[in-house]
Design a protein that fits this description.
The complex is a heterodimer of chains A (about 300) and B (about 170). With about 300 residues, chain A is an alpha+beta fold. Chain A is about 35% helix and about 20% strand. A five-stranded mixed sheet of chain B has the order 2-1-5-3-4, with helices on both faces. The N and C termini of chain B lie far apart (about 55 Å). Classes of the chains: A alpha+beta (about 300), B alpha+beta (about 170). At the A-B interface, helix 2, strand 3 and helix 5 of A face strand 4 of B. The structure holds flavin-adenine dinucleotide (FAD) and FE2/S2 (inorganic) cluster (2 copies). The site of one FE2/S2 (inorganic) cluster has 12 residues of chain B, from loops.
Chain lengths: ~300, ~170
């Protein structure tokens, strides 16, 4: 086994092109578990942590370009206000020690259907920035997950960054598990209200071979919500939204839960999340309803913190 | 391969490191620092928690090569007059307890140690919490900070007592 230690991004791309079988490693919170438990030994480890630019994020217009090496802990601390859905999901990952190392790019690399960053990335139309010596390309998040623990990266490609639009309305993430810390989701759900476009984004986790959107539910809610008058949420609309989200899932029975339970739980999560998001939208009377408070975030999304975990 | 790193303030190197080895293995088996414990090797128990460049992490999930050129502080390094490094002093353990950090002493005084296996990880994580805290953190914050550290003996109440005790001693009320 080799340990490859590029010092620059260009060097990392060269190494990955020369050694496509090398396994990139960042926080190691997936990679090292596999090695420690002897579930497979990579031919080589390609350590990306020395590369400074991967640890940076920047704001480019209405999009946060999140470097592949930004940890969950930093995302929560520095981007909580402009990426509330992703920050809520990040708060539920593992434990403080795991969040101090783990990254969204690592979550994407692993592409587990249960990964917590996937539902909020789907709900807010994130884009994965992949790069190889052949050049860079932007992969819409909906096209990134190709199967259980499989993604759209080519063997010579690395994730450079994830482009996440700054929230333009309320966002929530909810996850079912046996306790608050250190749980892999039994199922999870994320919602984003794109208020200016009168559109609803969704992401469903741990309830199908890949994370996925609930498109029928999105279209139904977009058409039925009273964007103009901001009247209270019709309980019938909320219930139907939940059913449509559950209908988009294709869950299985496994050690964490039965398919029937997942379907039921998803409907409840989705109904509640829509309720919270709509209540926030109604309470916020600014013209565009955005909750875009820029980059000077202290790391909270207010009441959403408590309500984000079910 | 060879890995060069700073451990508890001292520059050192580990030789013949296997490329898939963890920082935890390097500390325990190659550098003779058994403070950080090896229990699950999958990030679930926190008993291997050490500082890596000032941030508490599970040493079992850091690849040895990732520690190249970086600074590690283990539970041994938190005490003064203890054994910050194996050849720095007498045999392991300062029985008088005089060099212990307040967090370590509080764990003893509060009875937060039974078998002691989880203690080094909890001490490092509690140390990190209190380094940031202003006064005694609310229970919810303590619980959240220690959520990744499992103890199979104490039932956690005494551990919470120890953290509150250490916080009071570190920042006595005005
Ligand atoms: C105790 C514990 C609890 C956990 N709890 C959760 C949880 O609650 N929710 C959750 O979602 N996950 C959880 N995880 C899984 C893990 O922490 C996450 O998937 C995390 O996001 C992985 O990030 P990392 O940087 O550590 O990835 P690594 O382990 O370094 O890499 C993960 C995968 O991504 C690939 N990769 C890494 N970086 C790149 C890149 N730049 N380009 C291309 N491929 C890349 C690697 O080759 C590997 O396949 C947990 C893990 C542990 C050990
Ligand atoms: S041994 Fe590292 S977390 Fe358990
Ligand atoms: S004291 Fe025995 S595991 Fe905590």
């Amino acid at each position: 086994m080799d340990f490859l230690r590029p010092r620059t991004w260009a060097e990392a791309l060269d190494l990955k092109a020369a050694r496509p079988e090398a396994t990139p490693i960042q926080g190691g919170t997936d990679v090292m578990v596999e090695i420690n438990l002897d579930k497979g030994r990579p031919a080589a480890l390609l350590d990306l942590t020395p590369i400074p630019e991967l640890r940076e994020w920047s704001r480019e217009g209405d999009v946060i370009r999140l470097g592949a090496g930004v940890t969950y802990a930093r995302l929560i601390g520095e981007l909580g206000a402009c990426l509330p859905g992703l920050a809520q999901a990040s708060r539920t990952v593992g434990s403080p020690q795991i969040r101090n190392r783990g990254t969204v790019a690592g979550n994407l690399g692993a592409a587990s259907p249960a990964g917590d960053s996937h539902p909020p990335l789907l709900a807010c139309d994130a884009v994965v920035e992949a790069e190889s010596v052949r050049g860079a390309r932007l992969i819409p998040i909906g096209e990134f997950y190709t199967g259980v623990k499989r993604n759209a990266l080519a063997p010579d490609e690395l994730i450079r960054a994830v482009r996440v639009p700054v929230a333009r309305g309320p966002q929530y993430f909810s996850k079912i598990g046996t306790r608050n810390a250190m749980v892999i989701a039994v199922c999870s759900f994320s919602i984003a209200l794109h208020a200016a476009e009168r559109r609803v984004g969704t992401g469903v986790g741990s309830a199908a071979p890949t994370p996925r959107r609930a498109v029928a539910a999105e279209e139904f809610a977009a058409a039925r919500l009273d964007w103009q008058g901001r009247s209270p949420l019709d309980p019938g609309v909320a219930r139907r939204f939940g059913e449509l989200v559950a209908g988009a899932a294709a869950p299985i029975d496994d050690v964490r839960g039965r398919a029937a339970y997942r379907t039921h739980a998803l409907a409840v999560l989705a109904r509640r999340a829509l309720g919270w998001a709509w209540a926030d939208f109604r309470a916020d009377t600014r013209a565009d309803s955005g909750r875009d408070s820029g980059r000077d975030s202290g790391g909270g999304s207010g009441a959403g913190d408590d309500r984000g975990s079910a | 391969m060879r890995v060069n790193l700073t451990v508890n303030g001292r520059a050192t190197a580990a030789d013949d490191v296997w490329e898939g080895e963890s920082l935890l293995y390097v500390l325990r088996e190659r550098l003779g620092l058994p403070g950080a414990k090896n229990a699950c090797e999958q990030g679930e128990c926190g008993s291997c928690t050490v500082y890596l460049d000032g941030t508490p992490v599970c040493a079992c999930l850091v690849a040895a090569g990732q520690a190249e050129g970086r600074e590690v502080v283990t539970v041994e390094g938190l005490s003064r007059g203890g054994t910050p490094f194996p050849d720095a002093g007498p045999a392991h353990g300062d029985v008088s307890g005089e060099g212990l950090h307040e967090v370590q002493r509080a764990f003893l005084d509060a009875g937060a140690v039974q078998c002691g296996f989880c203690t080094p990880g909890l001490v490092v994580q509690a140390h990190a919490l209190l380094a940031e805290a202003d006064g005694v953190p609310p229970d919810a914050d303590i619980r959240e900070a220690l959520a990744g550290n499992l103890c199979r003996c104490t039932g956690y109440e005494k551990i919470l007592d120890a953290v509150r005790l250490a916080a009071t001693r570190l920042r006595p009320p005005p």
